[in-house]
């Protein structure tokens, strides 16, 4: 990529830059969240007691994408797993490697935290995301069931 790309944790003072990306991500999923949930999520990213994190992808100094990830225990492993919950790149920044760089950065964080696995989900019809994921990780054929409580 010719442009200057930096991946780093999203700072607590960057809420204004993160807001439109978060809104874009929710719109991509044709959903909305109560404001207090977004506020809580933002607070958790910056609470050292919480195992949930936000990495930002910066293109020429502007926040243009994010990866949100968290760590949890597993019944199958000694070490924790890392779940990459949200990945988003602004439309104007797509196709030049930011998504790949964000996933690589989450993997590096997970390795540094001694996690034994990074995993993520996507919808089967998300061809754009799968074009990237199929190059980076294995699809083991799991499907997700969900029961909302
Ligand atoms: C999925 C998403 C994060 C990818 O981000 P991105 O920055 O465009 O991805 P990259 O530029 O790193 O793409 C990496 C690879 O995927 C391929 N790719 C990306 N978009 C593609 C497309 N539309 N068609 C074909 N291949 C594509 C590229 O060829 C590239 O391969 P390469 O690195 O071998 O050259 C981005 O499209 C996005 O935010 N989509 C909307 C939200 C979403 O779907 N999030 C994921 C939810 S699980």
List the helices and strands and how they pair.
Elements: E1 5-9, H1 15-28, H2 35-45, E2 52-59, E3 62-72, E4 81-89, H3 98-112, E5 117-119, H4 127-136
Parallel strand pairs: 4-5
Antiparallel strand pairs: 1-2, 2-3, 3-4
Helix content: 25-40%
The level 1 CATH classification is Alpha Beta
Low-confidence stretches: none
Query: How many structural domains are formed by the residues?
Result: 1
Q: Given the structure, what is the number of helices?
A: 4
**Proportion in β-strands:** 15-25%
In CATH, the homologous superfamily goes by the name Gcn5-related N-acetyltransferase (GNAT)
Distance between the termini: 44 Å
Secondary structure class reads alpha+beta
Alpha carbon gyration radius:
15 Å
Strand/helix succession: EHHEEEHEH
Walkthrough of the structure:
There is one protein chain. The chain is of the alpha+beta class and 149 residues long. It has one domain (5-136): Aminopeptidase. The chain has 4 helices and 5 strands. Strands 1-2-3-4-5 form a 5-stranded mixed beta sheet, with helices on both faces. The chain is globular and about 40 Å long. Bound molecules: coenzyme A (COA). The site of coenzyme A has 18 residues, from strand 4, helix 3 and helix 4.
